[in-house]
TrEMBL record:
<dbReference type="Pfam" id="PF01227">
    <property type="entry name" value="GTP_cyclohydroI"/>
</dbReference>
<dbReference type="InterPro" id="IPR018234">
    <property type="entry name" value="GTP_CycHdrlase_I_CS"/>
</dbReference>
<dbReference type="GO" id="GO:0008270">
    <property type="term" value="F:zinc ion binding"/>
</dbReference>
<comment type="subunit">
    <text>Homopolymer.</text>
</comment>
<dbReference type="InterPro" id="IPR001474">
    <property type="entry name" value="GTP_CycHdrlase_I"/>
</dbReference>
<keyword id="KW-0554">One-carbon metabolism</keyword>
<comment type="similarity">
    <text>Belongs to the GTP cyclohydrolase I family.</text>
</comment>
<feature type="binding site">
    <location>
        <position position="116"/>
    </location>
    <ligand>
        <name>Zn(2+)</name>
    </ligand>
</feature>
<keyword id="KW-0342">GTP-binding</keyword>
<dbReference type="InterPro" id="IPR043133">
    <property type="entry name" value="GTP-CH-I_C/QueF"/>
</dbReference>
<dbReference type="GO" id="GO:0003934">
    <property type="term" value="F:GTP cyclohydrolase I activity"/>
</dbReference>
<dbReference type="GO" id="GO:0005737">
    <property type="term" value="C:cytoplasm"/>
</dbReference>
<dbReference type="GO" id="GO:0006730">
    <property type="term" value="P:one-carbon metabolic process"/>
</dbReference>
<keyword id="KW-0479">Metal-binding</keyword>
<feature type="domain" description="GTP cyclohydrolase I">
    <location>
        <begin position="42"/>
        <end position="219"/>
    </location>
</feature>
<feature type="binding site">
    <location>
        <position position="113"/>
    </location>
    <ligand>
        <name>Zn(2+)</name>
    </ligand>
</feature>
<comment type="pathway">
    <text>Cofactor biosynthesis; 7,8-dihydroneopterin triphosphate biosynthesis; 7,8-dihydroneopterin triphosphate from GTP: step 1/1.</text>
</comment>
Length: 225
């Protein structure tokens, strides 16, 4: 294939390309550099991008942008790449919750599409059937937030949340549904403002249609009191 054709093919594939791997593709040396070193490097490169676009980096409004973007990448929107920021697993035993389905719905989700580096904005709904071990509800929000703070594809994000909760809770019985808008679809390309993408991952007993139905019923419950 000629180079142009490859570029076109990649462009066309866009968000349709999903690696079958649950792990975020990273190099072995990903954390050899300190956060401060990464900020330095990214800052220089953002400067280069803005410079290539012909922007005047001496302008008062623009001169702080490279540093601001670099810090935001490393500490905020891509902070979830670093395992040291992973939320601590604090679980507790509650035998009264044994066999009960617990659902945390409408968890606000901000992530970034790894194909265009544009925002993904939506809601995550997470559920599990307790084997006696439970986690605080805010914990589920923090796990969603941690994996969302990476360059992502929505399918992988959904799987990573389920896998993490399965490990924390010691059960396969975990489910996650994400309903999100991708700004790369909504604001550019075909500019479909209304569309959203729904992905789901069902583990253990959630593969059973009845448990899945229960979970989806919880999600669809009107809880605006
Ligand atoms: Zn995209």
């Amino acid at each position: 294939m000629k180079k142009n054709n490859i570029d076109e093919a990649i462009d066309e594939m866009g968000d349709a390309f999903v690696s079958p791997n649950t792990d975020t593709p990273m190099r072995k040396d990903a954390f050899d550099k300190t956060d401060a070193e990464k900020v330095e490097i990214i800052q220089e490169n953002v400067k280069n991008i803005m410079d290539a676009l012909g922007l005047d980096l001496n302008d008062d409004s623009l001169k702080g942008t490279p540093k601001r973007v670099a810090k935001m990448f490393v500490h905020e929107i891509f902070g979830g790449l670093n395992p040291k920021y992973k939320p601590k697993a604090s679980t507790f035993q509650n035998k009264y919750k044994y066999g009960e389905m617990l659902v945390e719905k409408d968890i606000t989700l901000y992530s970034t599409c790894e194909h265009h580096l544009l925002p993904i904005v939506g809601k995550a709904h997470v559920g599990y059937i307790s084997n006696g071990t439970v986690v605080g509800l805010s914990k589920m929000n923090r796990i969603v937030d941690f994996y969302a703070k990476r360059p992502q594809v929505q399918e992988r994000l959904t799987m990573q949340i389920v896998k993490e909760l399965q490990e924390v809770l010691g059960t396969e019985d975990v489910a996650c549904v994400i309903d999100a808008k991708h700004l790369c679809v909504n604001s550019r390309g075909i500019r479909d403002v209304a569309s959203s993408t729904v992905t789901s991952e069902y583990g253990g007993r959630f593969k059973d249609p009845e448990a899945r139905r229960d979970f989806l019923d919880y999600i669809n419950l009107e809880t605006d009191f």
